[in-house]
Amino acid sequence: MTTVRLPLFPLNSVLFPGLVLPLSVFEERYRAMMRDLLKTPEDESRRFAVVAIRDGHEVAPSAPGMPDPTAVPERGPTAGFGPDPMASFHRVGCVADAATVRERPDGTFDVLATGTTRVRLLSLDSSGPFLTAELEPLPEEPGDEAGALAEGVLRSFRQYQKRLAGARERSLATGAELPDEPSVVSYLVAAAMMLDTPTKQRLLQAPDTASRLRDELKLLRTETAIIRTLPSLPASELTTGPTHYN
Q: 34 with 96: CB under 8 angstroms?
């Protein structure tokens, strides 16, 4: 089994291959990670892994601006993740390639990364200033009838978009071209739908593209029906989410 060791960036959200991830990095453990990534030559990939948090926090509870400024600060790479950090994270995540890592004058960072490939979390190393992980790459198998399923998902997704646009009086994907490659469709739709983190995580770790698309068809039909009953919805971008603060 071929594995890879990468810095680990836990988030309260799910990253999919091909999707953009903006980060605003202010916690020291993640600043240290970005400083380490900047040591990588510009012509090489600056990679780290993103996993969704199952139980824990992106930010240590006593970090500046958090609700309890009098608490004794938790420090170190595992702060906020409990005595067994492995239990705090979902086991399937995504490698991110940081195209932009920009340090601000105050030592914090603006980062723009893109999801590349799925990985399975095997083990953690907390001996350094930030978590690193041993990861197993997960191949994306097409499964049965992925092409036909992708066509159905795209049709349902367009109806979903129209319902969202009607509820918000604004188009969700003005000028955006939707892909036709099944795995890309499956990831894009999973990221663009207004779903909770456990549901997005389920889609990320689907055994193959066809299984993910089948799940998405059911979700799209359910969510589109729900939207009909809602008078308004918040704005949502098609392929990018909000900046994540750490």
A: no
Instruction: Work out the burial of residue 228: count CB atoms within 10 Å of its CB; fewer than 13 is exposed, 13-18 middle, 19 or more buried.
Output: exposed
User: Exposed e or buried b for every residue in 27-47, given b needs 16+ CB within 10 A?
Assistant: bbbbbbbbebbeeeeeeeebb
Task: Select from 79, 83, 97 the least CA-distant residue to 10.
Answer: 79
Q: What are residue 102's DSSP bridge partners?
A: 110
* Cα→Cα distances 111→2, 99, 115, Å: 28, 8, 13
Single-letter amino acid code for the residue at 194: M
pTM: 0.83
Residue 17 φ/ψ, nearest 5 degrees? -55, 135
- List per-residue pLDDT tens for the chain, 246 residues long: 699 999 999 999 999 999 999 999 999 999 999 999 999 998 899 999 999 999 655 544 444 444 455 544 567 899 989 889 999 999 999 999 999 999 999 999 999 999 999 999 999 999 999 999 999 999 999 999 999 999 999 999 998 988 887 655 444 444 456 777 999 999 999 999 999 999 999 999 999 999 999 999 999 999 888 877 765 545 444 444 566 766
**From CA 181, how far away is CA 215, in angstroms rounded?**
17
Token pair, residue 172, equals 């969700």
> Does residue 61 contact residue 68 with C-beta atoms inside 8 Å?
yes
